[in-house]
Amino acid sequence: MRPISRRNFLRSAAGTAGIVAAGGLLNACIVPATTAPGAAAPMAPTEVYTMTFPAFADMGQRDSTALFNDQVRDDGYRIVLEEVVENAWEPKAVSMVKEDDMRWSASGIANAGNQWNYIQMGIVQPLDDLLSTSTVPWAQSVQDTYIAPNIYQATVYDGKVMYVPMKLNIHLMGYRHDYLQRAGYDAIPDTWDEFEVMLGKLKTVLEPDGIVPFACRKEIFRTLGTAFTTFVENPYNEDNMLRIDSDEWMACIEMFKRWFDAGYTNLEVLQDPVPDWQKGKVAIGIDSHSWIRIGRAIWGSENVKGTVPPQFNASQPKRTWAHLDSGFVFTGAPNAQEGLDWALSVLGPEGAPADRFWSGTLTFSGMPVHTAQYERLIGSNSNYPELVAAYEALPNSTLQPMGAGRYYPIIQSKIWPWLEKYWGNEITAQEAMQNTLDEVYAELDKQVAA
After folding, report:
1. Where are the alpha helices (DSSP H) in 141-263?
2. What span, in angstroms and rounded, lies between the C-alpha atoms of 412 and 399?
3. For residue 262, is pLDDT > 50?
4. CATH fold label, 172-320+407-449
C-alpha cells in the first residue's frame, strides 16, 4: 500500500483530466476520529482510490460506496470514489501503468465496447488470483450467482476472468400502446412480416398527426444490431466480428430499406430519434430499456409498453441483443485486493451496497446480473413485465463477446455513411457493405502497422 498525502492527492487531481471535485471527495470520504484525552490518536484509514463516471455515481455507486465504507470492518482502509469524465481518463491510466505509479485500484465501469481495448492497452489485470484470496463470501463462486451462464463467459478473456459485471443491457422494442390501438392492434406482432403490415396501418392513422411509425437509432448495437440478432443464431463470426457480410445481415438491412421507401421511417429521424420519442412523434423504437423508461416518464406506463422484438419466424426461440458493462481492477493497482473486494461488494448479489446499486440500474440504464437481485427487483415486481420477457430471451441470445470490441468502433464509424446512401437510394446494398468492409479492413491494417 502506498499512502498518499493530501498535498500529493490534490496535485495529482489537478493534473488528471476529468477528476471531479477531488478535494471535496477526499473530505467527504474521511470520517474524523475522536480521541480520548491522553490517548494516542488512532491511525487514519488507508485511502483506496477507485473511479467511475458521474452518471454511474448518480445511479448508485456513490451511495453504495458510502454504505460499503460504513460497514463494520477492521481492515483499516476506506474507498475514495472519484468521478472522471468518460473518454478522458484512459491516456492518464496508460501513463500511470507505464510509470508504475497507478493511482486507482479499481474502476466501477468499463463499457462493453471498450473492454477488449482496455486489455490491449494494458490497464486491466486478471482477477483469478484475487478472487481466490478474497474474503467476500461469493468471490470464489460468483459465477454461480449469475442468472445465465453466458454472463460469466462474457467476463472471461483468453481463459482468465478480467471483469466484474456491473449491469446487463438486454434490448427491447418500446412502443406507444395507445398509437397501436388506433391502428387496431393491442400488442406487437410475433414476426417481422406481420410487423411490417402493422407499420403500414400505423402510417395511415398516424401520418396526419406528423407521427413516424418507426425510429432507427444510429448506433449499430441498438436498433439495427438488435433486429439482426433475430435473423441469426449468432451475430458474430469466429473472430468476434459482427457478420455484416452475411446473407442474414443483407436481409435485415433490406427490410429496413423497404421501411424507408414506404415512409415507415426516415433518415431525419435516424439522426437522433429520442427528441421525437419524447414529443410523441415516434410510435416505436428498438433500444435499451432506457427508451421505455424515458417514454413512461412522459406518457405513463399505460401508454408506453415494451417487449422482445419480433423474430424472423414464429417457431424460433426469442432472441435479442445483449451486452455486459463491467468493473475491473487496474494493472499496478496499489490496493488490488481491496479494489476487487469493493467491486464485488458494490456489484454483488446481496448486501446493502449491492441492493442500493442494483436498484439504481432500473432507474437509469441496465439490469441486474445476479439471480437474487433479479428476483428482488424484477421477478417479484409487476412494474416490469417487459424485463421478465427480456430475461427469458437471454439464454437464447449471444452476449456481445469481449473480442468484438476490436471491430465495433471501426464498424460503427464506417458503416453509417454507406447505409444512409443505400437507404437513400444512391447505391445498392452490396455496394454499401463492400465499401464498408474495405474501409474496416483498411483501418485494421493501419492499426497492425502502427
Report:
1. 149-153, 177-182, 192-206, 223-229, 247-262
2. 18
3. yes
4. D-Maltodextrin-Binding Protein; domain 2 (3.40.190)
